[in-house]
Structures are given as structure tokens and as C-alpha cells.
Amino acid sequence: MRGSAEERITSRNVDLSNCDREQIQFSNAVQPHCVLLAMDPATWRILQVSGNADELGFGPARDLPGRRLQDVFTPSDYQCVSDAARKLRYPAPPLHIGSSTLGGQTRDLFIHINNGSLFLEAERQGAHPGVAQKQLYDELRNGIAQLNASTSVVGFLDQAVHVIARCTGFERVMAYRFHGDGSGEVVAEAVHQGLERYLGLHYPAADIPKPARRLFALTWLRHLPDVNYQPVPLIPEINPVTSDLADLSYVFSRSVSVMYTEYLRNMGVKATMVLTLFKGGKLWGLISCMQHSAPRHLNIEVRAVCEMLAQTSSLLMSAKEDAEFAKYRESLSHSLEALVHQLGLRTSTAEALSSPKVNLLSAMDASGAAIFLGETITLLGQTPSQSAVQALAAAIASKVQPVWSSDLATRDVAMDDETASRASGILATRIGQFDTDLVIWFRPEYRQTVAWAGDPEKLVVRAPGREARLNPNGSFDVWRTEVRGRSKPWLECELDFASRLGRVILEVVVQRSREMARLNQDLSRSNRELEEFVYTASHDLKSPLRGIATYAQMVLRTAADLPSVNRERLQSIVQLANRMDGVIEGLLRYSELGHAVIRREDVDLNEVCEQIIELLRVDIESTRTEIRIPRRLPILRCDLRWVTQILLNLMANGIKYNDKEKRTLEIGYLVPPASTVTGRTGPGILYVKDNGIGIAPDDRDAVLRLFHRLHADQKYGAGTGLGLSIVARSVERHNGRLWIESTVGEGSTFFFTLDE
Question: Of 301, 227, 232, 324, which Cα lies nearest the Cα of 271?
Fold first, then answer.
């Protein structure tokens, strides 16, 4: 009750709601229409009783704790309880074991076991709603037939609430569906004439807080015959076995939260019964029965019929939703088959999923999609910008296990308004071995006006010196608010489609990876065999070639009277033999790289460059090439032999392939900036830059291939076509990277790294 000293603030100012923290299973009291006994199941010694236990005729309630059940119950009643108790093995809803006359009243007996205690509830029999037994079961039979005949979930629930209203006589019966954020909506209602209708109204999540939803999920039915009851406390307050309050989670007659009863009184409700609806093993919603005119206590027969209807409704729920969306599910299934077919035909997964004929958006009710696989990103339809999509993928990657969805993505992922307008709804599935290998569907914002039963921003009451708590809705006037940042909800069939597609793609990717690994092994073996052949053949050819060149030179020196034409032929033989010797020497080095061990050591690149400059001294001076080293080069851990070969080939090419009158050659080292994520720098970058003839963009990959020459043999000197191939392979063996930047007619820069 609010007083003048109370402070009123909105629920947004409270860090944690009292409702979500309230441990209502430890209420330590029961409703007065029932007597509760808690016993030790091993000794049958009574541990606790409700304060109204004297109604059973066994003497004052305070004298019962410590006595054995067989000492107070008749032998037949004790035998009935003990026989049923032997069948209990784990916590479960109370079991109805019959009725007995206790204290002059007929009471229904229920037992269950929980947290090491055996609970016995002795409930006064409730009134019959005025429906004959046969008529009651006829209603049940006819009701199930009507449920089976319904064709939609809403129609199904409409049938259910009317059947339950007829069976129970409650003045209002509502089907209440939970949304993903915990809020709920009345989707079906049977109500007496003259009462206000709640159909279509929404209720905030705090109206049925998490502890209440947890307890509803434990049993099929909860009954509160009189909202204005006075709770009956347990004696003693602390259970002597557990040294704690008794856990009354499964007790039918457990005293409910004071906030719940205040909430019901604000609605003008005198009695309630709540049935639980499950779908796929999860709490889906509730069927809430209300009596506004007077308290109402239903007997066990009527409650049993209602419980059976709740179980039947839950079992049929998935089938009804499947029937309602049968055509859509079929369309998704055909789309999945077509995508699987395309995955088998195409080598690129992204191309198979984004084909104009059939793609990720062909059947799925989504406005856009994105494919993340390795380093590639493919966007389809209406999506946020690529950078925004990348940020979203990074934010949800760890959530996808293996499917994740949200129709209020702004609650889960930070995004600007423009991104939210196109990605308020997100559905993602994993398609690879890495967190970032994903397929993501997007849905745009779906603005709608929602009618709430009372202000969804409940008032919070804070009295001086007391903790703030939520005040149950005091007004149920309809409040209308515009919902922003939310999309249409994702359906179970869509989640199923995404999950199945993800599994198929993952299987294809794994299969292709295995096939690629096998092909790489075969290729590696073939390359090794080829390298061994090249090495052997080259080694065996060197001696004959050198012999041919030597003998040709001897003939030229000793046969002075040879005709000039024969002398020219012999000179050609010497030149060809020397050129062939150069090619063979290059092949030997290239093949040797395939199996050579890279021996890393500290190498001073300044000394290496000095040696190469001295080796190329004649070419440098004859071409008047200016050698530049802007700053001192570092000492790197690398293989001296092969790094020398890299720099020698690049510097020699820079001098040779140059038609400028003034030639320049620059050798340098770049240090990349530190990563904003790790704070560490990457490997340094070496480069050799010339002002020569340059390389056209289409030729930059080709010049690195074996025996590829861009110019005629006599232009710029006869090359072997092996120098840059050896450079590329030497860099590769160092786990480095080589790339070229060049402008035709202006020069080329060869960049490379030597990762450790």
C-alpha cells in the first residue's frame, strides 16, 4: 500500500525486479483448504505440518512434528500412503492416491517427494460445477474431437478455451502465449457476457515473472480457489532434516506470491485455475481460468479432465502449427533440395547458395542474406552495408550453436538505426569449422501498435528503508505503444530449415576439405617425384654440356684455318651450351628448394647486399645504375643461402630490365603499424624497387611461373625464365608472401616477407 512517504519511480530505474528474484517456492505456507504434512520417507516421522493440521482430528498442529504417520493415521490410510510412496522415485507433480474421511471431512490425498522430504496434502473436496459425470466426460471426448478438427493454432486454442469453460464453469478462460522476450499475449478467450474482453491484449514479462514461469512448467495445473485467502504457515518454520525452508515447488496448495494475489484483486478476480501449455518440451503458454463473482473450488474430477485437456493440447500443438504452415514448410523443403543439388554441381559454396535460379532467399521469408566462408563474403537482397554485416557476424558468431535467431536483434547486438531498419530480425546457422563461417538471413523492422493491458511501465514502490519492489498493475486500461526495432518472429519451420541447410553445407565443406587434402597429398607426391627427376636429369646433363662447350672452344682455338661459317657455328654451340648450363643450374636450384631444409640464423642483410653489389659490380658500372638503401637494413632470422638468392635475382633483374639512361635500384625495409587488436606488429616487409620497364597487371602472376619470359631472347639479354620462380619459391619456403606493384614504363617494386 502506498503512503505519502513512498517514492514512485519507473521500473527502468530498478536494476533487478523483485518479481524475478522472489523465491516463491519457499513461501513456507499453504492455502487454508488444504493440510500439508512433510515427512522423512525413511522413518515416516513428521517433520513439518501446516498450522491448520488440527482439522484432521489428530490433536493440535504443534504436537504433530516428531510423531510417525502410522501413529496418527488409521492402518488403512497409512497403508494407502505407504504403498503409493514406494512408487515415487524422483520429484514430480503430486499423485492423487484417493480420498479419506479425516476430522469429519472427506479429503483428497496427494503425495510427492522433493528435496529428501515426502509431502502429503489433504485437500477438502471442492464443489462440483454442476455438470454430471457422464456429461463431463462427453465434453472431454467432444472437446478432443473439436481440437483435432481445428486447422490453425489460433482456432485450436479458441476451441480449447471454450471446452474448458464448459467443463469448469469459470466465467473467463484465456489462452495466453509467451513471446521470446517473456511478454505474453491473449490469443483466445471465452468470457461471460458483461465482462470486459482481454482478447488481443499484451502483458509485460513482469506480469508472470521467471520464478512463476518455472513453477508453472513443473505441473500441468495450479488452482487458487480463493484469492482473498489467509496463508497458513508451516510448523516448525525450518525443516529439521534440511535445516532450511521447505521447497514447496510441487505442492498444489502452496501459498502464492502476495504480488500475484494483489494483481488478481486489481483485476477483480476471486478464484483462478491455470493450465500449462508445452510445445516441443518448452513452456509455450498458459490457459488461465478466472472467476470474478465469487471464490470457486473445483473438485479433483473436473481438474483431472482439464489436466488431460492441457496435455492433449500440448501434444497437438506442434501438429497444428505444422498444418498451418504446411505449404510454407513444403516450399522450404523444395528449396533445400534444390540448394543441395546445386552444392553438388558447383565447386564454390557461395556460388551454389547465391545462384539466380535458386538461392537462400528463394523460399525463406527474409529480405536479405549473407554468406561468410573463409575470407569471402557474399551478400544477397536487401542487407545492411558490408562493414555493418561483418560487425553483426562477429557479434553473433559465438551465439550460433549451431543456429541462433532473434526478432529483436537490437537487444542482442549494438547497431545504428540504418542497420536496425534492415536487420531487426536475424537468423544464422553455422556452415563451417570456424565461428565466422555463417549463413545469415535478415528481416527488416516491422513496426506495429501493441495494445497492453495496463501501462507496461509498471510503477515501482519504494518505502523509506525498504527495498524497491514492483507494484502489480493497478489499472487495466488499454495502453497502446508503437513497437520499434522488432521484426516478424521466426517460425520453427524456418529454424529447422536453417539448421538442416547448415548441416548439409558443413558436410559438403568437410567432404571437399578432405578431397582437397587428398589431392594435395597426391600433388605433393607428384611434385616430389618430378623434383627428383629434374634434379637427377639436370645433374646428369651438366657434365655432357660442359664437355660439348669445352671441346667446341678447343676446336676454335686450335683450328685457325676453319672457314668462317664453321667458326660461327662452333661459337653458337658454345653459347647454346652455356645457356643450357645456366638453365640446368637454375632447375637444380629450383628442385633443391622443394626438399631443402630452411636453416634459419641471424642474417645481416646489409652484409648480404654488399656482397651482391660487389658480385654485380661490372653490370652496375656498365649500366651506370645508382644503388640506394634509404636506411640500414635489419638483422633477420632466415636462411642465408636462399635470401641471398632472392635479393641477387631481384637486383639483377632490376638492372637488366631497364631502358632508362639513368637507372636506379632501391633496397629497403618497412615496419607495419601495430594491430589495434593485439598491439603487436606483423612481419617486416623487404622490397626491391627499380625504375625499369615495368610489368603489366595481367603479367604479374605469369612472371613468377617457370620458364615464362615476357620478351624476345635477344631483348634485355637472354634469360632462363627461372629467376623469379626461384624467388617466389624461396619466399614460400620461408612461410612468407611475395607481391608486385608496377607501372609499365615507370618501374616495379617487389615486396616480400620472411615470416618465422
Answer: 227
Name 701's Cβ contacts closer than 8 Å, sequence gap at least 6: none
Q: What is the distance between the alpha carbons of residues 362 and 365, in angstroms, rounded to a whole number?
A: 8
C-alpha cell at 503: 548441416
- 561: DSSP letter: T
- One-letter amino acid at 640 equals L
Residue 262 CA to residue 228 CA, distance in Å, equals 9
> CA-CA-CA-CA torsion for 397, 403, 407, 412, nearest 10 degrees?
-30
pLDDT, tens only, 523-557: 666 556 555 555 555 555 556 656 666 666 777 67
Which residues are within 8 A (CB) of 620 and not within 5 positions of it... i.e. 6 or more apart? 613, 627, 655
Instruction: Tell me the C-alpha distance between 393 and 124, whole Å.
Output: 59
- The Cα–Cα gap between 287 and 173 comes to 7
Q: Which residues pair with 291 in a beta bridge?
A: 271
Q: Which residues pair with 119 in a beta bridge?
A: 38, 112
> What's the CA gap between 401 and 397, in Å, rounded?
9
In this predicted model, what pLDDT tens digit does every residue of 480-532 receive, in sequence order?
455 567 788 888 889 999 999 988 888 877 776 676 667 667 666 655 655 55
Write the CB contacts of 392 (distance below 8 Å, at least 6 apart in sequence).
384, 409, 413, 415, 419, 423, 426, 440
Compute the distance between CA of residue 682 and CA of residue 685 in angstroms, rounded to an integer: 9
Q: Which residue has the cell 671441346?
A: 551
Give the span between the Cα atoms of 310 and 287, in whole angstroms.
8
pTM: 0.57
The answer to whether 703 and 716 are in contact (CB under 8 A) is no
Three-state secondary-structure class, residue 413: coil
Cα(73)–Cα(605) distance, integer angstroms = 99
- C-alpha 330/C-alpha 208 separation (Å) is 36
- How many Å apart are CA 461 and CA 11, to the nearest integer? 9
Question: Which residues, other chains included, contact 510 with Cβ-Cβ below 8 Å and sequence gap of 6+?
Answer: 433
DSSP state of 397: G
Give the C-alpha separation, 412 to 406, whole Å: 8
